[in-house]
Every structure is written in structure tokens, then in C-alpha cells.
Amino acid sequence: VKTDVSWVKTLDLRIDPTGKEKKWHVDRVVVYHESSCYSSCFPIKGWLSTDSPTISVESKSVYPYELTLYMLDGDAGEPFDGDVYVVLEGKEGKSNEAKLAVQTPDPNAPEGAPTFMPGGEVVCSFETYDVGELTCIHLRAEKTGKLDRWGLKRAKLFNTSRWEATHFSIATVLDAGRGNIAATAMASPLQQYDYDVIITTSDLPGNGTDGVAYLALFGSKWQVAEQQLLNDEAQNFERGRVDTFTISSPDLGEIKKLQLRLADYSGGVHTQWHVDKVEVLHKNSGMQTTFAHKNWVQPDETVELTADEKNDVYIPYTITVWTSENSDASFAGEMKLTLNAQSGANSHVITLGTGSADTGVFQSGARNEFKVRAADIGPLSGATVRLGYNDTTSSWRPKQIEVHSATNNVYAIFKNGEELLYTWAGDTQLAAAPQDVSYSVSVLVSSNSPEYDGKLWAVLNGDLGRSHELRLSNPYYDTTFSAGCEYSFDISSYQVGAINTLDLRLENPGTANSLTLDTITVTNNSNGAKYDFKLDGKKLTTSSTLNVPKFWPDAKYSLVTNTSDIRGAGTDAAVYLTLAGDNGTAPEIKLAATPTSFQRGAKDTFSFTTKDVGANKRFTFRLENPAGGVLHSGWALGSIELTDIGTGMRTSSYYHSWVTPTSPATLYESSTWQALQSYTVTVRTGSQEGADFSGKAYIRLHGWWGSTDEALLVQGSKSSHNFGKGATDEFELRLEDVGSTNSIELRVVPDEGSDDVRGSWFLEDIVVSHVSYGYVSTFEYSNWIDKRKPTVTMYKYTSDVDYKVVVHTSKDQPKGYDGDVALKLTGMYGSTEPDKLVNSSVAFEPGSAEVFELKGRDLGPLSEIEVTLTNTGAVKSWFLEKIEITNPSTNNTSTFTLGSAITDATNPLVIKKVLGSTEYTVKVLTSDVSDGGFDGGVFLKLAGSEGESGEVKLVSEVAASFAPKSTNTFKIKAEDVGALSGATVRIDPTGSSQQWHLDRIEVTPAKSSSATVFSYRSFLNQHNLSTTLSSSAQHDYKVSLTSGEVGFDGDVYLVLGGTYNTTDEVKLSGEDISAGGYKARAVTSATFKGADIGSLSTATVRIDGTGKSKSWALLKLEVEDTTAGSSAVTFLNAAPLTLPDKSSVTLLAATKCTFKVKVTTKEAKGTKPLSGKVFITPLGADGLCGEEAELLGTEGQGVLVPGATSTFTLSATEIGELTALRVRTEGKEGEGLHVLNVELSNQDTGVNSLYACDTLLPANTTSELPRLPDTNYQFTVVTTDVRGNGTDGRVLVVLEGERGTTPEFELSGDYYTAFERGNKDVIDVAAPDVGTIHAVTVRLADPMYDTLHSGWNLSSVDVQSSATGKLHKFSHNDWLTAPDNLSVRLEDKGGGKVVADPLGKPIPKVKPVPTGSSRSPPPSETKPPSTAGSTKGTRTSARGTPTPSVKGDPKVDSPLPSFTSKRSGFDDDAMSSRLGATDMFDDLTVKSGDLEV
Predict the structure, then answer these.
(1) In whole angstroms, what is the distance from residue 1289 CA to residue 1344 CA?
(2) Of 622, 682, 671, which Cα lies nearest the Cα of 649?
(3) Which helix (H) or strand (E) holds 1071?
């Protein structure tokens, strides 16, 4: 073929049967490309004929192979001189039969002997196409010489292109003289195993070789021919080295002996090699065979060694594999795993198993556990996964792999983000997951427990795995557990999901060997999930591990399922549900269905009780075929809604797919909102005889926004209640939010067996309180309820009003109506009794408008009236035009129009209220959801205080397309329903979109400028075409904004975020803002109305440059929900807002932290001790300022004792990095306190700070203590070179200096080598600059996870401070050992030696000033500084604050620290030297270029 088609991929073969034969059986076609020297094979193995003359075939790769044949020897050995043919069979087919060509004859065969001699070894070659993974080899002998029989022992097949070897055990005699069957042998590949050959070179002078080593192994099942030992190391076989080489072979069985040979190519240098021993490790089993030599190996000498001993050197591991729940997650092939250690070592390749739907291994959602053995390689850093090829699946989606060994306490979790792994991708490396989940653990010791000073260990067992063993102890000292005490610990672990059980263990007891506990509470700090473990006095002992299950309360749920409205959607199968959430996975439950449940297009509701799974829910539905058939077993599930009755939270999820008995469905949370609100119902029973009632009482609430479901009034888990005579009973309910309750329905069911008396109940009244919104409604009854009238309707109690009634008689009335007219009113709060209209007129004259006064209860908005005529006069009919009724409490007038004659005096006439029409502006906001847009019809119906409107379609002048994140505005005309309370939205999906994610609707009546907001934030679709929305409850918010040095005169906008909602953006307004904007160094107040958003969590502030200001130093924002009565929430801001670069910022609610304050004082001669109070205020970066807090003590006795260190605990707002500490004192004249320093420790974040003082603080003064900056300390720690020395413990240090004492910190050296015998460890640590060091305290703490080597002989510690440049030397030369000798204090009385230039800066001296004089007034009282120049008698500090002058002293010290410029190009040090905090000025002029201030 002349045309070059490059790589031949397919071949079309066609025959033209022009000859005698009409069909042809083709085995294969081989195409050889001469210029490129490659060939393509096209296997056909089929017939071509007249009927089927054409075939198209894809190419198969052709590979060259070497086949090494090993012949039987001894009596079974038979020489053979014929031809040998081979066929390979694999998972991708069967090759053609190929004749073997001898490549390397048997080197030991005599000249002229047959090709295949007994005991011989012949290497042959052939080519054939790729058959995939080998499953079988076929060998056929053909007699072409004199000999018939051939004894074949085994064969090794080598693919020279892929560099792969496969071994076959045959061990049979082929007889070529008796036909093909006798002449053919078939064998399957032998499994290959890895063996590590570990050679230890003796540690002798002059030992080591540059030669090449060869090794042969001989086992009971197989042997490895001599081969060169190769690895990636360049310096093998050196003195004292241990070198490892890997050999692959079929199972050798028991290894009997080995042969070792040295080939010397070094030219005579290092020609001898002293070998201590050779170890051979079977990497799959862990069996290690040792061959001792302890002798020299001469060049070209073969040393034969026999086995000395065998040991199992592997340890057990438990490997747990989680497969993702995704539908494409399952895998049907073999999975192999290699463990990677932090030290760089690797385990052997561990075959875990083969995936199968029958066994559940590696299937979607499966958790599979494997018990394996592998080498102890220490802490793990990663894992390597390889997937084996199979016929059905090519990928696997694992969730995580957990590896644990109790032998060496190794634990690791490996994750890949649930990404797909592929069989063709080779090795996939998974990194060990970080221990980045923090938990808070609270341990309550029983009151009868002995004191325990040993170690308490815990393992967290969760849905996603287990933690490693964690020690519950203070990180800085060992915790002693005392009876009746509660202890708190912080631990970090892997993500284990919802915690189900705890494993607890005691170790190394001191004075007691047991510990009795009441409860342990574990809180996941990342999601707030809390897990309680109740031990109730169970005793832990050192002899066993205690497994404690989680205390898991039940929860009540209501589930709504929406079956799709498509053909065949319904099901007769049993439906099972499994709930999962932050608290764990609840047991599977069967939904209590009826024969009509789960029908096409149906909405079904189920109530059930199961475990409280918490938030972040997911749902798994499983079907089970009905007995006797499989009809309608599939179910098309559209969507679900689950309501947690206890919390009132409702979760929706959408599926729109099929569930079958073989394919369960897992749904995930789509959205969650507060659906149920808390109500308190108070019931008062009368005190009459027989007024009590025992039975079930059901209540239904009707309010502004609709009605609730019926709820049973019970307390606790009781099924009924006894309403005692004269008793007041209170009930807590979770019901739909109906706003203020207008009326209630009460239904009673007496207990069985009650007589007539017990079946009656005298009810005085019921009070319904809406807990969230504060609405309270009272319903008076004061009557009997009994079996004959078990259901009553009660209306909200309201006071009486005098209604003004204007009756308009038509001018078409022939004569005045002279009969009696009675009127009954019906409104939101019930009805009045019919009352006769009476005034001075004797008749309703034609065209008249008669005015009446009607006294009755305030019914709220009226809905209808009932007119009753009594014909007492001559005229028997009345032409009524209309009646207008005005409620004086609201001044609302309701009009009831008839416009016709009333002739029937026997029956009352009901007239409905007629609503006038008005115009509304409707804003529709579509959510920012990718598939949330809608292009169909949208209809709206409004409800308000005066009634309901008709349904109106939203149509705009432009085509309305509700695109994601869009706002569409409409003008509609509808009935004037008064104050808006509800809106019903309906969609008609006539366009291409079948669903719409509606965020909210804002409706503004024409007669009002304020909009009513109806929030939804969920989908409307074919299963949920309409929804009725309640107006978002509007709360009053009070906002306080604290400005720093720079104020702002523009507009400020605010958005608040909360637990279940966000407010709309509002422009802040108020008297303060109108009076001058946001003034510098002042607090500005504002108020606004916004939606109820629950607990405040975020605040987004945006500025608009409507004034002259381009920046604003906003320091603090405080927001108070005055409607809810909650405490103010603080938001702190560090960086200024600037236009246009940073015009907005989102702030998180500041958290309260626990601080420990340690104050060190000394005796102050000539000054009385302070008897009053002491207050501190943390000061942060960028002007942030915390709240002032009192150091609590007893007034008159002194909070701080001179010459002592006092410790206090207080709660304060976390403001980030602290820069200074403000201290304010109160007391009597002449009192004071000399403070050396103050240490502040944040117990929640672990951040410590030290503040220098060494100053007398008089009573009634305020001082700012600067924070000591951190400096670098270089520690040189020498461990004594004595036998048994070295520690794995933690070395903790405290420095004492002229400025104070540092917090205790750890010297963290190299984990494996620090503080070992004879070591000199150099460690750099950043800690507060305490100036010249006087002493160092060194403490040894036991390691968290190891108890070995806990003693330590410390030789010396040298400390060099970068701040002072001094080196301080401390000698010890003694042991630190448990339990009473773990710390030592070493002194440097010489003050150190200067060895380097000091880098530290001087600390500003603390200058107390009288409180209220030199400090700025509180922000709310701050006035802007005068710009009129100097004022006699006052001086101005560097911050512009007026400061009283001191007579005779031209310079008054200021407590403010020096300013440091943050602009580039300034010499900070030079600036500080010229302009300091202690400088005072009458006038100060600053020039910068053309700018002069």
C-alpha cells in the first residue's frame, strides 16, 4: 500500500468471491509500516462470505515478548526437540497462536543436544497483540524431530515494551505424539509478591565495598534465580549501613536458604565485604527470615546461608473506608493501598478487597472495615491508592480512608474531597487530613470520686470516623481531678462528624487507680454542635477502657412529601426514612402511610418521633416492595419539607427524580427557616364546684396571618391534662406564626370513664402570648364547656367603644320607614349582639342620613353587618342605600352598601363590607440563585386590616422576566385592604422556567410612603404553585456609632444580619445626624425599623460621599433590638472607611472572652494603701477600645494588696491585638498603689500580653500602661551527657526581668532530636521584652502522648535578648524528675553581659493624671478642639485635647504614647525624638509641601 495513513487504527476488509470458494475464515491481518518499523494487528477470527463480504476491525497493539521455559529434571525430565507454540488469553481477548523462536539456548546443554533438556532453561521470543490483563497461557508442543515427550516445570513471560514479568507454574509432561490435547498445557498467572532484602554491613574499621552484589533465594514453593541487588541509593554497602532492596517473585513459601555473591569492579580497592546479616521480609505477610553471616564475603565468591530465625514483624491495622453517597461512587474492582510515613518510609502494597454490590464493598454510601497487618512505619503523612481494572466500573468516589493501629497509637484520616479516582490514572496520593477541628470538653467529676492525679484519655467516635487518642489535661500542667469539680479542656482532632460514643481510659495513676464521673460534654467549636455523655457515677479504672454512648434526646418532626404529577409517579411500596444532621444519624423509620398515600401529585403529611439530629439535615428514602407484587414500586419524589416541632425550624429539599427499591434517594438541605414560633397559653379554670376537667383540650389559633393546626394542651409527655378547680395552667406550644391572635377554637375530649360532672369544665379565660413578638391576647369565656358542646370559639378581649352609625335611606323610598331596625356587627374579634338603633327621629325618611350611637366591644376591622327589621309601623319595606360605621378607637370608617329595598322582616339580612380600590406599587425581588429565574405568569392577592383583595396578575409596560438577582416593579389596582398583613403569590409556569426562587415582595399603597415586606426566600414550582406570606415583623433598632479622630458628614447605610434573616439596607437618620453628621471622637445615635432577624451576627456599613468627607474613622457600632428587649450587640471596626476604595465593611459581632488579670505590686513608702476600686480598659490597634471592667474586691479592704501578686477573672469584648492598658483608680486622698506590671491572659484565645508600669498610681488617677513589645530571645539549652539522659517531655520557661515576668512559654525544638543526651539545642522564641533578665524558671512537663524519657538532666541554659543585647548564663547540672522535682528557678545576679547591639526601644514612662482632667471626656461628651489659636490657661496635647496648665511647670506629662507615622518616607525614630508624648504646646504648625495646618 503506497498511501501513508500514519498510524493504522482501523481496517476494512472486503472479499469478492469470484472463485469457487464462497466463504473464507480469517484469523488476523498484520499491517507492517516499513519506514516507521511498527506493526498493527487486526484480529478477526471470523467468516467472510457472499452474504457478509465486509468487516471493519480496530487495531490491537503488537508487543514483543520473551518467554523463558524451565524444564523438569530428575525422573520427570524429558528432552524435546520439536516446535513450541503459545497463545495468550486476557481480559480483552485471545491472541493468535505464535511459534516460539529460540533466543538464548540452554547454556548447560551439551553440543548437539535437543533444544529443551531436563533441568534446563531456554529463552524464546515471539510477537502478538495486546490481550489486556493476562488470565491464562496456552503452550502446545508439535513433534518436528525425533522426540515425543517434553517435561515442562514453569515459565516466565516478559513483555519487553511494558517491562512486565508474569510467572506460570506448569509442572506437567506434554506428549506431542498423542494429538493436540495431550500436547497442550494451560496455566494461570502466579500472584507476585514483594520481598525486601535488608543487608546490614558490619561496623568494622575499613569495611565497605564499591562492588556489585547478587542474590538468589530458595523457598519451599519457588526460587528466585540470581539477580543483581539494585535500589536508588548511591552509597550501598558502606560501613555500618543498612541497605534495603526489593525483589518481586511468586510466593516462595518458607525461605530455606540464600546465595550471596560479590562481583568486584573497583579495581582492587575495598575488595572484601564484611556482612553482619541478611534479612528477607515477605512484605504481604510481615514474616521476616534472618540469615546471620558475621563474616567476610570475598570477590566472586558465592556464600550460601541457611535461615536462622523467623519473626512476624508486622503490626495490626484497622482500615475503614467510606464511599461517597453519590450515585456514581461505587467501584467493582480491586483497591490497593500503600501507607506513607512522615519519616519517608512506606508500607507494602495492601490489597484491601474487591468492590461488589453483593458484599457491599466500595458501594455508594458504604462503610467497609478491613483488618490488615503492615510494617510499623510510625506517624503517617499520606496514603497511595491504586484501582485495579475491571469489566464494569472504571472509577470510584471515596469519601475518606481511616487508618488506625492500637499497637503504636497511629491514627490518620485521608480525604480527597470526594473526587473521582480512575483505574487508568495510576497512583493517587492522598494527604493526611489536618487535625483542624477544635473541641471544648467539659468533665464533671462525681462528688464521691477519689482524687485522681493520673492521665485521662479519650477517643471521639463519629459518623465520619474516630479521633486519635486525646489526653484531657491542661496543656501547661498536669490536671488533678477532684471530687465534685468541673474541668474544661480544649482539644484538636480530625473531622469525625457527629460524635456517637466516647472511649475513655486511665493511665499511670498516682494516688488513686480509679475516677468516677457524672457527665462529659463535647462541643464542636466550628458548628456549635454539642454532645452530652452521661456516666451517672460510672467508675473508670486503669484495667479497662469504657465506651460511653451519647445521650441523644428525641425530637418530634412533621414531614410533608410532594409526589410528582407525572405518569406512574405514585407508589404502593413501603417508604422508609433515615434522618441525619449535625448530631448524627437517627435510626431508620417507616412512614405510617395509608392506602391513599404517595399518589400521583399528592401532598402527604406524617408526624413521628425520632432522635434529634440537629441542623444541616440530609434525608435518605428507601422503598420496600409491597408483599405479593412489585406494581407501582417506583416513586417519583418531587420535594419534601421537614419541620422540627421543638425548634420550629423547617427544612426544604428538592429531588424531582425516581426512588426505587434498588436505588434509594439521598436529599440534602435546600433551605431552612424559622417556620414555627413559641407561644405561651395560660388557662384559668373557675372556682365553682365541679369546675375542674380531666381530659384532652385542643386549641387552634386564628390571627392576622392565618390559622394554626390544632394543638393539644399538655405538659411534658402526658397524653391529657387535669385542669383543677381554681387552677391556672401554663403550656408552651410551637405553632405556625399567625401574628397577633384574634380568636381561638377550643375542643375538649373528656377522659374515658368520666361521668357527666367530670365531663364538664367551667373555663374562666385563656391568655395567648406570642413569645417572639410579644403579642398578648386575652380570651374571656366564664362559661361551661361539656360533652354536648365540646367545641367553642372565643374572641380576643377588647374594651367597649361607642360606634358611630350613619344610616343612608334611598331617596327612592316612597315613605319614611317607621319600623324598628336592629344591627349586629361582626369583625376580627367576634360579633356584637343585635342592638336596636334609637335616636330622636321617628322614621327613616327618603334621602336621609340618620346618625346613631351603638355601644359594643371593639371588634377591630369590621367584615359584615346583620340588619333585622321589625315592622311596627305602617310602612312594611325599607329602601336602604348604605350604612357607614366609624370605630372611634381607630377612626376607621367601614361602608356597607345595599342599594335596594328590604321587604323580608322575618330573616336578618347580611351585608358584606365593600372595599374601595386603590393603587399599589409592587416590587418583586428574585433571589441570586443560578436556576431561580422565571418567565411565566405571577399573580398577587393582598390581605389587610379591612379584608382581602381579589387576585391580580402582575403586568408591566416592559416584558417582565424575573431574572436571578433582579428587581421588577409593577403598578396595580386592587381593593383597599387597609393595613397590610398578608400576601398570596401564585405562579403559572407557562414559559420555559418551571420554578422560581422568590426572595421577597415589597408592597407600597398609594396613600403611604412605607413599604410592607413579604419575605419568602424559597422556590415556587409545579408542586408548590402558591404560597401565603406574612408581613415581616418590623422591629425597632437603636444604633450607636463611635467615631475616632476623623468624623464623617455624608450618608451612612446599614444592613444587619441575624439568625434567620437580614434587614434591608437603610440610611441612618436621627437628631444627632441632622445636627452635624458623625462627629469626630463622639457617639452618634440613630434609630430605624427593620425586619425581625433573630440574634444579630453581622453588620454591613456603607458610606456615600454626599458631604465633603472622604474618610471616616468608625471605631465601634452598637445595635440594640428594642422590640425584642435584647442586649446591645457590639461590632468593632479597625480600619477607616474611605471613598471610593473602601466604602463598605462587613463586621462580625464582637465576642465576649474570659480574661485572667495578674497584677504585681510593691510596697509604696509614704503612701497609704489604696482602699477603693481599680478599673482596667483594654486598648487596641487603630483606636479600638474595649469596655472598662472593675477588678472586683471589697471596698474599704483594698482590691490590690501591696507587695503581692493578685489574680482576677473578668469578661470583656475581644478587640484583637492589644497595644496598651488603661488603669483607673478610685480611693481617698493620699492613697495609692505602686504597680510593677500587669499580665493579661485571654483564656479563650490563649494570647498573653504584659504591660510595664513600675510607677505609683495615686487614687483617682488614670494611667495608660504600654504593652511590652515582643523581642527575640535565643536560648541555648545543653543536655548533660550522662547515661539515660534525654527527654521527650515539653520544656516550659518563664523569664523574670526588670520590667516584669513573661507568661510561661514552651521551647519547641526538633521533635525527634531536641533535649537528647549531650545535645546543645539553639531555639529562638518571641516573648515580651522584660529588659535585663534576673532569673529563669525551667519546668518539665510530661509529653501529651508519651510517658517515656520524662526525666531530664539539665546542664545549662543561656539566654540572649535581642532587645538588650545581653547574654545571661544559668547553670543547673542536675535532674528534673517527677513528681516533685519538675521545675527549677535559676538566677543571674550579675545582670548579664552585653554581646550585641541592643535593638529594643525605651518604654514610655507611665504618668498618672487626675481622672477627668487630662484625659479626653467620654465620647458622648466630647467637643471638637478649638481652632481659634491658643487659650490662656490651657495647653493642647499632641492629640489636640485641652489640658490644664500647671503653674510654674512649662511642661505637663501626658499619658498618651508617642505618635508613629504610617506614611512612607517618614523617619519614625527621628520624628519621635523631636516630637514626643510629653511635649505640650500653645500652638503647633505642621507643614507638608504646600499644605499647612
Answers:
(1) 8
(2) 671
(3) helix 1071-1074
Largest Cα–Cα distance in the chain? 153
Say which amino acid occupies 1434. Answer: T
Phi, psi of 1482 (to 5 degrees): -80, -45
How far apart, in whole angstroms, are the C-alpha atoms of residue 1331 and residue 1366? 9
What is the pLDDT, as a whole number, of residue 217? 94
Mean pLDDT of the chain: 84
Residue 1112: what residue type?
Answer: W
pLDDT at 494: 82
- Segment 316-340 shows an average pLDDT of 89
Q: How far apart are CA 333 and CA 336, in angstroms?
A: 10
Residue in 327, 329, 320 with CA at minimum distance from that of residue 419: 329
CB atoms within 10 A of CB 1277: 23
Residues forming beta bridges with residue 245, ordered by sequence position: 197
* Residue 1450 pLDDT greater than 50, yes or no: no
Which is nearest to 1296 in space by CA: 1246, 1239, 1218?
A: 1239
Q: Which amino acid is at 44?
A: I
1196 Rama class: left (phi>0) / alpha (psi -120 to 50) / beta: left
Q: Coil, helix or strand for 1471? A: helix
Total length of the chain: 1493
CB-based burial of residue 645 (10 Å sphere; 0-12 exposed, 13-18 middle, 19+ buried)? middle
Measure the N-to-C terminal CA separation of the chain; round to a whole number of Å.
94
CA–CA dist 932, 920 (Å, integer): 25
d(CA 1025, CA 1397): 79
Q: What is the torsion angle, in degrees rounded to the nearest 10, for the CA atoms of residue 472, residue 476, residue 479 and residue 484? A: -90
Provide the pLDDT for residue 1454.
30
| Position 432, amino acid | A
SS3 1408: coil
- Contact status, residue 905 vs residue 869, Cβ threshold 8 Å: yes
Q: What is the residue whose three cell numbers read 427544612? A: 651
Rounded to an integer, what distance in angstroms lies between the CA atom of residue 1185 and that of residue 1190? 15
Nearest by Cα to 78 from 137, 188, 152, 187: 152
> Three cell numbers at 721?
391534662
Mean pLDDT computed over 962-980:
89
pLDDT in the model for residue 1426: 34
Instruction: Give the H or E element holding residue 1473.
Output: helix 1468-1474
C-alpha cell at 1190: 472593675
Q: Is the pLDDT of residue 1049 over 70?
A: yes
Phi-psi category of 1236—alpha, beta or left, where left has phi over 0 and alpha has psi -120 to 50?
A: alpha
User: What are the cell numbers at 960?
Assistant: 417582565
The whole-angstrom distance between residue 641's C-alpha and the CA centroid of its chain comes to 23
Q: Quick: pLDDT tens for 1238-1282.
A: 888 887 777 888 888 888 889 899 888 888 888 999 999 999 988
pLDDT tens-digit profile of 562-604?
998 888 889 989 999 999 887 888 999 999 999 889 998 888 9
Could you tell me if residue 377 is left (phi over 0), alpha (psi between -120 and 50 degrees) or otherwise beta?
alpha
pLDDT number for residue 754: 58
Residue 958: its pLDDT value, please? 62
Which residue has 521455559 as its cell numbers? Answer: 69
Task: State how far the Cα of 311 lies from the Cα of 1338, in Å rounded to an integer.
Answer: 45
Q: Cα(582)–Cα(525) distance, rounded to whole angstroms?
A: 12
The per-residue pLDDT for 970 is: 92
Q: At 1065, phi and psi to the nearest 5? A: -70, 130
Provide the pLDDT for residue 893.
Answer: 87
Within a 10 A sphere around the Cβ of 956, how many other Cβ atoms?
13
Question: To which residue does cell 391576647 refer?
Answer: 777
- Quote the cell numbers at residue 366: 458504604
The SS3 assignment for 178 reads: helix
Coil, helix or strand at residue 1301: strand
- Listed in sequence order, the residues at least 6 apart from 993 whose beta carbon sits closer than 8 Å to its beta carbon are 933, 934, 935, 936
SS3 1393: strand
pTM, rounded to two decimals: 0.46
